[in-house]
Amino acid sequence: MAEWGNAPRSSGGPRDWALVERFLLEDLNERRRARRWRWVRRLLVALFLLFLVVKMSGGGGVDASAFGPHVAVIQVDGEISADQAANADSIIDALDTAFETAEAKAVVLRINSPGGSPVQADEVYREIRRLRAKDPKKPVYAVIGDMGASGAYYMAAAADRIYVNPASLVGSIGVIMPGFGVPSLLQKLGVEDRTMTAGAHKNLLSPTKAIDPAEREHVQAVLDAVHRQFIAAVKAGRGDRLTNNPDMFSGYFWNGEQAVALGLADGIGSLHSVARDVIKQEKLVDYTQTVNPFDRVLRRLGTELSLGLRQGLGLSLSQEALR
Prior knowledge:
With 323 residues, the protein is an alpha/beta fold. Helices cover 47% and strands 13% of the residues. Strands 1, 2, 3, 4, 5, 6, 7 and 8 form an eight-stranded mixed β-sheet that branches.
Protein backbone atom coordinates (compact mmCIF):
# COMPACT_ATOMS: atom_id res chain seq x y z
CA MET A 1 0.00 0.00 0.00
CA ALA A 2 1.35 3.45 -0.97
CA GLU A 3 1.99 5.92 1.76
CA TRP A 4 1.09 9.58 1.46
CA GLY A 5 4.15 11.93 1.38
CA ASN A 6 6.75 9.30 0.46
CA ALA A 7 8.40 9.41 -3.02
CA PRO A 8 8.83 6.14 -4.93
CA ARG A 9 12.23 4.61 -4.52
CA SER A 10 14.72 4.45 -7.46
CA SER A 11 15.73 0.97 -8.36
CA GLY A 12 18.71 1.89 -10.65
CA GLY A 13 20.88 4.15 -8.54
CA PRO A 14 24.12 5.54 -10.03
CA ARG A 15 23.84 3.43 -13.20
CA ASP A 16 20.63 5.23 -14.21
CA TRP A 17 22.33 8.59 -13.83
CA ALA A 18 25.22 7.38 -16.04
CA LEU A 19 22.71 6.41 -18.72
CA VAL A 20 21.06 9.82 -18.47
CA GLU A 21 24.43 11.57 -18.72
CA ARG A 22 25.40 9.52 -21.77
CA PHE A 23 22.06 10.27 -23.37
CA LEU A 24 22.52 14.00 -22.78
CA LEU A 25 26.05 13.93 -24.22
CA GLU A 26 24.86 12.08 -27.30
CA ASP A 27 22.05 14.57 -27.71
CA LEU A 28 24.50 17.48 -27.39
CA ASN A 29 26.84 15.99 -29.99
CA GLU A 30 23.93 15.38 -32.31
CA ARG A 31 22.85 19.00 -31.96
CA ARG A 32 26.39 20.14 -32.77
CA ARG A 33 26.52 17.94 -35.87
CA ALA A 34 23.12 19.19 -36.96
CA ARG A 35 24.21 22.79 -36.47
CA ARG A 36 27.35 22.26 -38.54
CA TRP A 37 25.40 20.60 -41.35
CA ARG A 38 22.93 23.46 -41.23
CA TRP A 39 25.78 25.92 -41.84
CA VAL A 40 27.16 23.72 -44.61
CA ARG A 41 23.78 23.83 -46.31
CA ARG A 42 23.68 27.59 -45.88
CA LEU A 43 27.15 27.88 -47.37
CA LEU A 44 26.14 25.82 -50.39
CA VAL A 45 23.04 27.95 -50.91
CA ALA A 46 25.08 31.15 -50.53
CA LEU A 47 27.66 29.90 -53.06
CA PHE A 48 24.89 29.09 -55.50
CA LEU A 49 23.35 32.54 -55.03
CA LEU A 50 26.76 34.13 -55.45
CA PHE A 51 27.21 32.29 -58.74
CA LEU A 52 23.80 33.49 -59.94
CA VAL A 53 24.51 37.09 -58.94
CA VAL A 54 27.85 37.12 -60.75
CA LYS A 55 26.20 35.71 -63.85
CA MET A 56 23.35 38.22 -63.69
CA SER A 57 25.68 41.18 -63.13
CA GLY A 58 27.88 40.25 -66.07
CA GLY A 59 30.85 39.35 -63.89
CA GLY A 60 32.73 38.04 -66.90
CA GLY A 61 32.71 41.47 -68.56
CA VAL A 62 31.87 42.41 -72.13
CA ASP A 63 34.30 41.93 -74.97
CA ALA A 64 34.00 45.37 -76.58
CA SER A 65 36.27 44.31 -79.43
CA ALA A 66 33.40 42.13 -80.66
CA PHE A 67 31.67 45.30 -81.87
CA GLY A 68 34.37 45.94 -84.46
CA PRO A 69 35.88 49.42 -84.94
CA HIS A 70 34.03 51.89 -82.73
CA VAL A 71 34.18 54.97 -80.51
CA ALA A 72 34.43 54.29 -76.77
CA VAL A 73 32.01 56.53 -74.88
CA ILE A 74 32.41 57.24 -71.17
CA GLN A 75 29.64 59.14 -69.40
CA VAL A 76 30.55 61.71 -66.73
CA ASP A 77 27.12 62.58 -65.41
CA GLY A 78 26.27 64.46 -62.21
CA GLU A 79 28.40 65.43 -59.25
CA ILE A 80 31.98 64.18 -59.28
CA SER A 81 32.46 62.41 -55.98
CA ALA A 82 33.87 59.16 -54.62
CA ASP A 83 30.38 57.99 -53.61
CA GLN A 84 28.60 59.04 -56.82
CA ALA A 85 28.35 57.44 -60.25
CA ALA A 86 30.90 59.95 -61.59
CA ASN A 87 33.85 58.83 -59.47
CA ALA A 88 37.51 58.55 -60.37
CA ASP A 89 37.78 54.77 -59.94
CA SER A 90 34.90 54.02 -62.30
CA ILE A 91 35.98 56.55 -64.91
CA ILE A 92 39.61 55.39 -64.81
CA ASP A 93 38.55 51.73 -65.13
CA ALA A 94 36.54 52.66 -68.22
CA LEU A 95 39.46 54.64 -69.66
CA ASP A 96 41.88 51.78 -69.11
CA THR A 97 39.51 49.32 -70.80
CA ALA A 98 39.02 51.64 -73.75
CA PHE A 99 42.77 52.06 -74.26
CA GLU A 100 43.32 48.31 -73.98
CA THR A 101 40.71 47.61 -76.67
CA ALA A 102 42.29 47.80 -80.11
CA GLU A 103 38.94 48.23 -81.85
CA ALA A 104 38.24 51.42 -79.86
CA LYS A 105 39.60 54.00 -82.28
CA ALA A 106 38.96 56.99 -80.01
CA VAL A 107 37.57 57.82 -76.58
CA VAL A 108 34.88 60.40 -75.90
CA LEU A 109 34.12 61.72 -72.44
CA ARG A 110 30.46 62.75 -72.58
CA ILE A 111 30.27 65.32 -69.80
CA ASN A 112 27.23 66.76 -68.09
CA SER A 113 28.42 67.77 -64.63
CA PRO A 114 28.68 70.85 -62.40
CA GLY A 115 31.95 69.54 -60.97
CA GLY A 116 32.76 68.26 -57.52
CA SER A 117 35.81 66.83 -55.81
CA PRO A 118 39.09 68.34 -57.03
CA VAL A 119 40.89 65.17 -55.99
CA GLN A 120 38.63 62.92 -58.07
CA ALA A 121 38.89 65.27 -61.04
CA ASP A 122 42.68 65.45 -60.80
CA GLU A 123 43.01 61.65 -60.69
CA VAL A 124 41.03 61.33 -63.92
CA TYR A 125 42.98 64.20 -65.51
CA ARG A 126 46.29 62.53 -64.71
CA GLU A 127 45.13 59.16 -66.00
CA ILE A 128 44.04 60.65 -69.32
CA ARG A 129 47.40 62.34 -69.70
CA ARG A 130 49.23 59.10 -68.83
CA LEU A 131 47.23 57.02 -71.28
CA ARG A 132 47.66 59.57 -74.07
CA ALA A 133 51.43 59.61 -73.55
CA LYS A 134 51.44 55.81 -73.62
CA ASP A 135 49.28 55.55 -76.74
CA PRO A 136 49.41 58.80 -78.75
CA LYS A 137 47.47 57.25 -81.65
CA LYS A 138 44.22 56.94 -79.65
CA PRO A 139 42.73 60.43 -79.21
CA VAL A 140 40.51 61.50 -76.34
CA TYR A 141 37.73 64.00 -76.90
CA ALA A 142 35.43 65.72 -74.41
CA VAL A 143 31.87 66.56 -75.42
CA ILE A 144 30.10 68.85 -72.96
CA GLY A 145 26.32 68.76 -72.76
CA ASP A 146 24.34 71.04 -70.47
CA MET A 147 27.29 71.73 -68.20
CA GLY A 148 31.00 71.13 -67.92
CA ALA A 149 32.07 73.29 -65.01
CA SER A 150 34.67 73.32 -62.26
CA GLY A 151 35.98 69.77 -61.68
CA ALA A 152 34.18 68.54 -64.80
CA TYR A 153 36.08 71.06 -66.90
CA TYR A 154 39.26 70.05 -65.05
CA MET A 155 38.79 66.54 -66.50
CA ALA A 156 37.91 67.87 -69.95
CA ALA A 157 41.10 69.94 -70.09
CA ALA A 158 43.12 66.72 -70.42
CA ALA A 159 41.35 65.79 -73.67
CA ASP A 160 42.86 66.45 -77.08
CA ARG A 161 39.86 68.55 -78.03
CA ILE A 162 36.72 69.83 -76.33
CA TYR A 163 33.38 70.23 -78.09
CA VAL A 164 30.36 72.05 -76.69
CA ASN A 165 26.80 73.02 -77.47
CA PRO A 166 26.21 76.77 -77.96
CA ALA A 167 24.06 76.71 -74.79
CA SER A 168 26.47 74.64 -72.68
CA LEU A 169 27.78 76.18 -69.46
CA VAL A 170 31.57 75.92 -69.44
CA GLY A 171 34.39 76.97 -67.14
CA SER A 172 34.00 78.04 -63.51
CA ILE A 173 37.73 77.58 -62.96
CA GLY A 174 37.89 78.30 -59.26
CA VAL A 175 37.70 76.76 -55.81
CA ILE A 176 35.04 77.30 -53.17
CA MET A 177 34.59 76.40 -49.51
CA PRO A 178 31.07 77.38 -48.41
CA GLY A 179 30.56 78.71 -44.90
CA PHE A 180 28.44 80.96 -42.71
CA GLY A 181 28.52 82.44 -39.22
CA VAL A 182 25.76 82.80 -36.62
CA PRO A 183 27.48 83.75 -33.33
CA SER A 184 25.35 86.89 -32.80
CA LEU A 185 22.14 84.98 -33.52
CA LEU A 186 23.07 82.23 -31.06
CA GLN A 187 23.87 84.82 -28.42
CA LYS A 188 20.45 86.44 -28.87
CA LEU A 189 18.80 83.04 -28.58
CA GLY A 190 20.75 82.24 -25.44
CA VAL A 191 22.54 79.27 -27.06
CA GLU A 192 25.97 78.52 -25.63
CA ASP A 193 28.61 76.86 -27.78
CA ARG A 194 30.26 74.10 -25.72
CA THR A 195 32.46 72.67 -28.45
CA MET A 196 35.68 71.19 -27.03
CA THR A 197 38.83 70.63 -29.05
CA ALA A 198 42.37 69.38 -28.70
CA GLY A 199 44.35 71.58 -31.05
CA ALA A 200 44.15 75.35 -31.19
CA HIS A 201 42.60 75.49 -34.66
CA LYS A 202 40.58 72.27 -34.76
CA ASN A 203 37.33 74.22 -34.96
CA LEU A 204 38.60 76.81 -37.43
CA LEU A 205 35.88 78.70 -39.29
CA SER A 206 33.24 77.36 -36.91
CA PRO A 207 29.90 79.10 -37.64
CA THR A 208 29.35 79.53 -33.89
CA LYS A 209 32.33 81.83 -33.33
CA ALA A 210 33.68 85.02 -34.83
CA ILE A 211 36.13 84.36 -37.64
CA ASP A 212 39.80 84.42 -36.70
CA PRO A 213 41.88 86.45 -39.21
CA ALA A 214 44.79 84.01 -38.94
CA GLU A 215 42.49 81.07 -39.67
CA ARG A 216 40.93 82.90 -42.60
CA GLU A 217 44.39 83.56 -44.01
CA HIS A 218 45.37 79.91 -43.60
CA VAL A 219 42.26 78.57 -45.36
CA GLN A 220 42.59 81.13 -48.13
CA ALA A 221 46.18 79.98 -48.72
CA VAL A 222 44.96 76.39 -49.05
CA LEU A 223 42.23 77.38 -51.52
CA ASP A 224 44.72 79.47 -53.51
CA ALA A 225 47.07 76.49 -53.76
CA VAL A 226 44.30 74.26 -55.11
CA HIS A 227 43.29 77.03 -57.52
CA ARG A 228 46.87 77.28 -58.82
CA GLN A 229 46.85 73.53 -59.38
CA PHE A 230 43.60 73.85 -61.34
CA ILE A 231 44.97 76.70 -63.46
CA ALA A 232 48.19 74.81 -64.19
CA ALA A 233 46.22 71.76 -65.32
CA VAL A 234 44.05 73.82 -67.68
CA LYS A 235 47.07 75.60 -69.13
CA ALA A 236 48.91 72.32 -69.62
CA GLY A 237 45.93 70.80 -71.36
CA ARG A 238 44.82 73.75 -73.49
CA GLY A 239 48.19 75.38 -74.16
CA ASP A 240 48.27 78.22 -76.68
CA ARG A 241 44.57 77.82 -77.48
CA LEU A 242 43.69 79.88 -74.41
CA THR A 243 43.21 83.60 -75.00
CA ASN A 244 44.68 86.23 -72.69
CA ASN A 245 41.56 87.07 -70.72
CA PRO A 246 41.96 88.37 -67.14
CA ASP A 247 38.71 86.66 -66.09
CA MET A 248 39.67 83.27 -67.50
CA PHE A 249 40.41 81.74 -64.10
CA SER A 250 38.20 83.96 -61.96
CA GLY A 251 35.45 81.39 -61.44
CA TYR A 252 33.22 82.82 -64.19
CA PHE A 253 31.43 80.40 -66.46
CA TRP A 254 30.47 81.00 -70.10
CA ASN A 255 28.17 79.57 -72.72
CA GLY A 256 29.50 77.28 -75.42
CA GLU A 257 30.11 79.96 -78.05
CA GLN A 258 31.96 82.16 -75.55
CA ALA A 259 34.02 79.16 -74.41
CA VAL A 260 35.14 78.55 -78.01
CA ALA A 261 36.08 82.21 -78.41
CA LEU A 262 38.11 82.09 -75.17
CA GLY A 263 39.91 78.90 -76.17
CA LEU A 264 38.30 76.85 -73.43
CA ALA A 265 36.70 74.70 -76.14
CA ASP A 266 37.60 73.85 -79.73
CA GLY A 267 34.28 73.86 -81.48
CA ILE A 268 30.56 73.25 -81.54
CA GLY A 269 29.57 69.61 -81.65
CA SER A 270 27.64 66.73 -80.11
CA LEU A 271 28.61 63.16 -79.40
CA HIS A 272 27.22 61.96 -82.72
CA SER A 273 28.62 64.81 -84.81
CA VAL A 274 32.08 64.37 -83.28
CA ALA A 275 31.97 60.61 -83.93
CA ARG A 276 30.76 61.14 -87.49
CA ASP A 277 32.69 64.22 -88.61
CA VAL A 278 35.83 64.28 -86.45
CA ILE A 279 36.60 60.65 -85.62
CA LYS A 280 34.99 59.29 -88.81
CA GLN A 281 33.56 56.38 -86.89
CA GLU A 282 29.83 56.41 -86.17
CA LYS A 283 29.56 53.21 -84.14
CA LEU A 284 29.40 54.07 -80.43
CA VAL A 285 30.03 51.67 -77.54
CA ASP A 286 29.30 52.77 -73.97
CA TYR A 287 32.21 51.89 -71.68
CA THR A 288 30.75 53.62 -68.63
CA GLN A 289 31.26 51.64 -65.44
CA THR A 290 27.82 51.72 -63.89
CA VAL A 291 27.20 51.06 -60.20
CA ASN A 292 26.41 47.35 -59.95
CA PRO A 293 23.04 46.88 -58.21
CA PHE A 294 24.30 43.56 -56.88
CA ASP A 295 27.43 44.93 -55.20
CA ARG A 296 25.70 45.23 -51.84
CA VAL A 297 24.34 41.70 -52.21
CA LEU A 298 27.81 40.40 -53.02
CA ARG A 299 29.30 42.10 -49.97
CA ARG A 300 26.53 40.70 -47.80
CA LEU A 301 27.05 37.22 -49.21
CA GLY A 302 30.76 37.53 -48.60
CA THR A 303 30.09 38.28 -44.94
CA GLU A 304 27.62 35.41 -44.70
CA LEU A 305 30.12 33.03 -46.29
CA SER A 306 32.85 34.08 -43.88
CA LEU A 307 30.62 33.66 -40.82
CA GLY A 308 29.22 30.42 -42.13
CA LEU A 309 32.66 28.99 -42.74
CA ARG A 310 33.73 29.78 -39.19
CA GLN A 311 30.56 28.25 -37.79
CA GLY A 312 30.81 25.21 -40.05
CA LEU A 313 34.37 24.54 -38.89
CA GLY A 314 33.40 25.05 -35.27
CA LEU A 315 35.63 28.12 -34.94
CA SER A 316 34.98 31.30 -33.07
CA LEU A 317 36.43 34.75 -33.55
CA SER A 318 38.45 34.37 -30.35
CA GLN A 319 39.89 31.05 -31.56
CA GLU A 320 40.95 32.63 -34.86
CA ALA A 321 42.56 35.51 -33.03
CA LEU A 322 44.75 33.10 -31.09
CA ARG A 323 46.29 31.64 -34.24
